Sequence to fold (185 residues):
Amino acid sequence: MVMDKAARAVWWESLPAGIREEIDGYVLQDSLLGAVHVITDVGLVPHGIGVGTAQLIANDRYLHYGDRIAREPESPLDLESLACRAAGCGGRVVAIEAIWDGDTVRDWFVRLLAITADPVGEARLATVHWSTAERYLGEEGDHHPRHPAAVAAERAGGALAAHLSVPFHFASPDTPDDEAPRRRP
Fold:
């Protein structure tokens, strides 16, 4: 069952103040999963609120608080900062990879990863949200029709890969796809 916005508002107001404060606490800390978990815990059995509706309710709270939410700080995309992060990886960096990810609140974003050997693994170098991309691209931000996060990740990741003399992999730079093929060793 999916509730419309008015029904979600009525349900929200029917909650005890303590539960509303707990959910809002998760929202203000930018913990969508924490908020959704509490909403489904208190809403599933008595009201049939599943994960989909819980996400909509949490999104309503995100919209309510707007800029007051303590967001994850924007990742630096300059070559010096990315190279410093790559140097701190556990293992020898053998490639730089960009992969799509997303959520219901912040839309699509791209993660820049260092792929390592000895030991085999991956390390997050940066998360490129729309706002991060616009800051990085600046005035040259005319990237249409491509998503700005893809353009910024491709430029920053490509520059880092060239600097480290390793390959750069971005399986789906033109279309958000969190199931695009990953780089294989």
User: Anything to note?
Assistant: Residues 5 and 60 are 8 Å apart (CA to CA). The radius of gyration is 20 Å.
